[in-house]
Amino acid sequence: MPLCVLGAALLLSGLSAAAAQGTCSGVAPAPPRRGAWVSLTSAGGRGDGRTLNTAAFARAVARIERRRGARGGTLLYVPPGVWLTGPFNLTSHMTLFLARGAVIRATQDTSNWPLIHPLPSYGRGRELPGGRYMSFIQGNGLQDVFITGENGTIDGQGSVWWDMWKKRTLPFTRPHLLELMSSTDGTISNLVFQDSPFWNIHPVYCSNIVITNVTVLAPHDSPNTDGIDLDSSSNVCIEDSYISTGDDLISIKSGWDEYGISFGRPSSGITIRRITGSGPFAGFAIGSETSGGVENVQVEHLNLFNMGVGIHIKTNSGRGGFIRNITVSEVTLDGARYGVRISGDVGGHPDASYNPNVLPVVDSVTIKNVWGQNIRQAGLIRGIRNSVFSHICLSNVKFHGAASIGPWKCRAVSGGALDVQPSPCTELTSTSGTGFCSG
């Protein structure tokens, strides 16, 4: 690898994450300039689109692990080319850097794809009982890891997995494209993620994570290809990204029924801003797996088009947990079945052991400065009879339809509504004391 290319790679990896640090201040530390580097070609890789590079990635990561004493860690440089590979693991104190024109492409031979344990907060695979397939790129228990580049591509070639799901021949839960688990101080930036087998980017049990300047793509008919799913993670910033997938663009989760309640790790301290995208489900979602709780979330400046739902907060009886202190603001929505849905009857259960009497608490949700056109139904806010959704605030929320737009529908909810079109439901307008909603 020429020294000028190496220098550019080192510089760019630093600039990518440093740029994220400048706007996500206080979330993840600025990356150190890596003191060593490994090129995938030096580990025996071939970027011809045909050679399987699984062993080359494993060798390169093993070299980085052996160099843990290197000052600032080590950069793994993936040159231009198409690097076909099976799933592989990352390690701490490393940067995975994709040069411009580099594509890390998943093999479609799923016969030897490794199985791993289910997440303890889910108790089983999300789709099927038992374990789950390892994510295409996996990191577990890491610190100081950066996945970045010059807009290189991580391609999951997910169609083979989608076909198994559609034909009901899938033996275990599909793999994510990228999963960071129980990890801290990481940045994902300046990359394209496409055609994930299942959820695209999945930080779970993580803290101090920045996701910035990413593009996430999958066909709108690809099943469950959520763009970014934050799961039982804290101190996370997502910004300046484009997402167009087959499910929710961004969703916040925290475990599934009795398993999530027992694990007890909430998602908290989350900032999401300047996101553009489209898809058949929600632009921004919370849930429905929220048994560990979700709190202190700030979402702003979303530009969404051709959505199923603009903003969707969803939970169910038996979930337990809480959803509280959520603010969503400055949203433009062009085309949706629903502008807003806050629902207490969404999502299935992992098994028959959940307790239907364990009810979630939904409190202090503010949705303000939202404008939408070509909206079919303004919104639905449906709480739970024995757990009324409280302090729900709609402020300056205006939806328009091509013809007459469906009205707001509410039940088991209290809160306030100020300057809302079409006219808000009486459950909000008749609530006494709307001072909490005037800020």
UniProtKB/TrEMBL annotation:
Keywords: Glycosidase, Hydrolase, Signal. Residues 1-20 form the signal peptide. SUPFAM superfamilies: Pectin lyase-like (SSF51126). SMART domains: PbH1. GO terms for biological process: carbohydrate metabolic process. One of its GO terms (molecular function) is polygalacturonase activity. PANTHER family: OS05G0587000 PROTEIN, PECTIN LYASE-RELATED. Belongs to the glycosyl hydrolase 28 family. This is Polygalacturonase.
